[in-house]
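Below is a filled-in request sheet from our internal design queue. Each sheet records the structural input a requester submitted and the sequence that came back. We keep these sheets so that new team members can see what a complete request looks like end to end.

REQUESTER: design group, bay 2
PRIORITY: normal
MODE: inverse folding
CHAIN LENGTH: 635
BACKBONE (tokenized):
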């Protein structure tokens, strides 16, 4: 019988030796059975020797086939069917040489078929069954021709008929078992693949293929434990791309995704194989450096990473160069657990951004309150909007001559849960640097329009609400459409909304600014130039701007009337604005002598602490209830 295990050409040497030993043991048992058959006189000496030689020859033949890898040319590299047919041939040879109880040799056919139960297809069982029946029929005919004295023809044909009835049933059952096993294997493979996919999704970022936050935490925890025990070095690099959102906004999210994949690749090839890079989300990456060099070596590696990130990239036909800010924290001096290391590396990265971006910063305990505050502010802005922590305050704008309130300016305040009430000077620069100013500015416009409509519906006297626009907002092509939609949805009167644009923002790109201002003017809103006089020399261009109001910056107001230069500039601005049919509003009026000087120069309106500071809507409503629009000075 052929019982040699299947040896694939690419089987590892250790497994191949084991398979050979199993094969030797298997046909060794077959030889023992032959010897036993000879002892109890089932087979003669010559027949036993011939059968043993055949077993060795057949198995040696298959061994050579597997050894030289000829089996790889077959569809089934295990050659299971060929081995089974060869085994049946050997069994029939042995059955021919049995002198009596030939059915005992034939029973080996069923044993051989068992090897195919887990590998055969239904047609293989049919082939094997027909081969057995044909082989036994040939044995009977050979016996009738060459050993008529040893054969009882009726019994032999009875046994053939018995096999003809038994083998198909055996083959059918085997085929069912084989098919069932195949289904189980497929299901098991699908389940294994599904579990592997789920595991991969749970531990890897789907966009870049890098480990995600969960995987990083697990690996970091292991690394911290190892570093604690072995005293080996461990460092964390926290990397954040600079101005990534502007790429998303200008080129689209597919381009942003392409950029993130490329940045992930560049970071990965910049570090050692033993180091780990993970993506935390957005444009944030973390590199874990084990057994790292000293701090000089860490800075060199960090510089290598930033240099790779800063190389030019092609995105949708555009040449793009991005930079990144990188913070470093070292275990255990900068944190003795995972949370502290990540937080301090993150804080160091934010300090790098605060220092001008595109640079490396190492964590130190004296980063200072400013860095901590900036960290809290930048991290908390989006959550603050979701939690309704931002509020609009309203500062009255008063007519110099009548003392009546002609409008208000909407000024944003952030009721921070830990830092208290923050003025715009504390968080607007950070919002601009992160481009969060775009959604925040849209929120301010929406709130102002809703408040204007609410006051109108409540019967409060009508007056415009002024809203400040930043440089970033003016560059947002969707802003005019947003203002239009907000006016439509809120039902606010466009003439009761005033948009203030700084002189610097207007002059950055005069032609585009004029087009945007014309779009706003077409909506029916009022337009004002804020902080006039602090930017470019724009007097020659002012007549081209479709604006209604000019606001004199507080820098020229604070020293009036004592500073002759400020007085001369203020006088010229007022005269020029009136010549262009514009109203003039003075900002930052805090003292009576400032008020008197501006009124003497013919300024139209003022705002500042001399009248009232900015206040919440209910406080303004209470003030109007007491005084109407004729609000008296507070000083």
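RETURNED SEQUENCE:
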């Amino acid at each position: 019988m052929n019982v040699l295990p299947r040896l694939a050409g690419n089987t590892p040497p250790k497994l191949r030796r084991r398979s050979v030993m199993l094969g030797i043991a298997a046909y060794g048992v077959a030889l023992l059975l032959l010897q036993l058959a000879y002892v109890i006189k089932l087979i003669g000496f010559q027949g036993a020797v011939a059968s043993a030689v055949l077993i060795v020859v057949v198995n040696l033949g298959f061994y050579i086939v597997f050894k030289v890898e000829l089996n790889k040319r077959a569809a089934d590299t295990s050659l299971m069917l060929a081995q089974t047919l060869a085994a049946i041939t050997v069994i029939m040879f042995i059955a021919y040489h049995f002198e009596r109880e030939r059915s005992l040799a034939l029973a080996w056919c069923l044993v051989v078929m068992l090897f195919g139960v887990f590998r055969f297809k239904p047609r293989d069982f049919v082939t094997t069954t027909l081969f057995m029946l044909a082989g036994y029929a040939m044995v009977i005919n050979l016996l009738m021709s060459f050993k008529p004295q040893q054969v009882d023809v009726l019994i032999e044909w009875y046994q053939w008929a018995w096999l003809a009835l038994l083998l198909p049933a055996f083959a059918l059952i085997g085929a069912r078992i084989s098919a069932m096993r195949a289904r189980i294997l497929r299901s098991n493979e699908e389940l294994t693949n599904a579990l592997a996919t789920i595991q991969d999704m749970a531990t890897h970022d789907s966009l870049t293929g890098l480990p995600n936050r969960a995987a990083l935490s697990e690996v970091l925890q292991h690394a911290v434990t190892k570093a604690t025990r072995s005293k080996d070095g461990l460092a964390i690099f926290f990397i954040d791309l600079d101005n990534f959102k502007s790429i998303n906004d200008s080129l689209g999210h597919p381009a942003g995704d392409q950029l993130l994949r490329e940045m992930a690749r560049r970071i990965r090839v910049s570090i050692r194989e033993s180091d780990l890079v993970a993506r935390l989300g957005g444009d944030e990456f973390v590199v874990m450096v084990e057994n790292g060099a000293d701090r000089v070596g860490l800075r060199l590696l960090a510089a290598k990473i930033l240099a790779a990130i800063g190389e030019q990239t092609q995105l949708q036909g555009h040449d793009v160069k991005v930079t990144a800010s990188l913070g470093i924290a070292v275990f255990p001096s900068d944190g003795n657990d995972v949370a502290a290391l990540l937080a301090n590396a993150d804080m160091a990265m934010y300090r790098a951004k605060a220092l001008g971006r595109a640079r490396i910063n190492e964590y130190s305990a004296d980063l200072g309150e400013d860095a901590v505050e900036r960290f809290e502010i930048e991290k908390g802005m989006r959550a603050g909007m979701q939690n309704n922590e931002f509020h609009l305050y309203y500062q009255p704008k008063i007519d110099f001559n009548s003392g009546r309130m002609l409008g208000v300016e909407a000024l944003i305040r952030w009721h921070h849960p830990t830092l208290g009430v923050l003025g715009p000077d504390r968080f607007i620069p950070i919002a601009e640097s992160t481009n969060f100013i775009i959604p925040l500015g849209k929120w301010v416009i929406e709130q102002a329009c809703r408040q204007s409509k609410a006051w109108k519906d409540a019967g409060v006297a009508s007056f415009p609400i002024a809203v400040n626009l930043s440089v970033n907002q003016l560059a947002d092509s969707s802003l005019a459409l947003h203002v239009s939609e907000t006016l439509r949805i809120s039902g606010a009167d466009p003439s009761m909304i005033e948009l203030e644009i700084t002189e610097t923002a207007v002059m950055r790109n005069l032609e585009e600014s004029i087009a945007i201002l014309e779009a706003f003017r077409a909506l029916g809103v009022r337009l004002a130039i804020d902080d006039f006089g602090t930017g470019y020399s724009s007097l020659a261009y002012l007549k081209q701007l479709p604006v209604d109001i000019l606001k004199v910056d507080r820098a020229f107001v604070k020293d009036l009337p004592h500073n002759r230069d400020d007085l001369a500039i203020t006088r010229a601005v007022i005269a020029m604005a009136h010549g262009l049919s514009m109203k003039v509003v003075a900002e930052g009026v805090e003292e009576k002598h400032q008020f008197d000087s501006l009124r003497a120069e013919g300024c139209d309106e003022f705002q500042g602490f001399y009248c009232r500071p900015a206040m919440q809507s209910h406080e303004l409503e209470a003030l109007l209830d007491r005084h109407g629009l004729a609000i008296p000075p507070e000083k």
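SHEET NOTES:
- Confidence is low (pLDDT under 50) at residues 1-17.
- The CA atoms of residues 144 and 152 lie 9 Å apart.
FILED BY: M.R.
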